[in-house]
Queue: 2 jobs
Job 1
Amino acid sequence: MQVSIIIPSRRREHSLYRLLHSFIKQTPVSMEWNVVVVGDRQSCWTPEFVGMQFHWLSFYTCTAGGPASARNLGAMQSTADWLIFVDDDCVLPPQWLQHWENVFNSVPKDVVQIGGPGRPLSKPAQYSAFWYLVESGFLTKPVRLNDRIECIPTLNAAIRRDVFQKIGGFDSSFKFAGGEDSDLTYRLYQHGKVEYSDSTYLYHDHDRSFLNILEMYFRYGRGVAHHIKIRNRPFQEGMFIAGNPFKIFLLLPLVVRSGWQLSKGILCKNYLQISIVLICAVGQSLAYQIGGAYEMIRRKVIG
């Protein structure tokens, strides 16, 4: 069995270098594997530099399009049975390849896509709203609609290469990060089943500011609006694919806990803590909805 790991990278040389070093520490596996990095033209590192450090890695440059086009270019270089897509701000635990090998050896033939978790790389020194959203599963669980997985985030996702080629890979009309993975999962369902494996986890760097969170969910909203438009899906489904507003109720345990601590006079800072978390959660939900509305209006205006 052969596996290719595809990594799109854009101006995050330090993160990419950290990720590539985590491949060196992998537990040996029997399957053959290689790594394909696709960088943008603004990258300041060269193929020669990377090649000297990692003999199992190949490097390509994608001069147009967003991460969807970059992943497609990387997949074109592979002849493997499976493609695993990983983001450049991730770090692999030593057994990551071994866990994927175990999954590939046992997965039914009708399964065409498998997702894995992205656990937080580190907990910030100060309690942050984003950390709670990650810790509670607000941002790390596969998105489901009517018990069907609607989106496998491509920060850690495996796809059968032959099926990936059959559907034409990622839709390159997605010019930015957001919605292209939902669109891919939607089209893969026409060729088989989609599953999720908790054992294939990796670590994801969630070091984001509040403004970064809003910008990220604005993109998600735009991307999902684009997806439901080109696939002729009901608009209400798009409200849940990547930004289910009702998930805000995941914050209720924190509200109750902080309220109890405040009533007992335990650490008044909890009042500020819960306020920040609620603002963050409401903000990300609004940013998602605004992004979707913006994309719908933009498409109406430009036709």
Job 2
Amino acid sequence: NMHTCKGIAISAEMIKEVAQRRS
């Protein structure tokens, strides 16, 4: 499912950014 893949990619990017800011 393309929509699900896009959602996962966006979530991963958000988690990445949050992790970098918290570090």
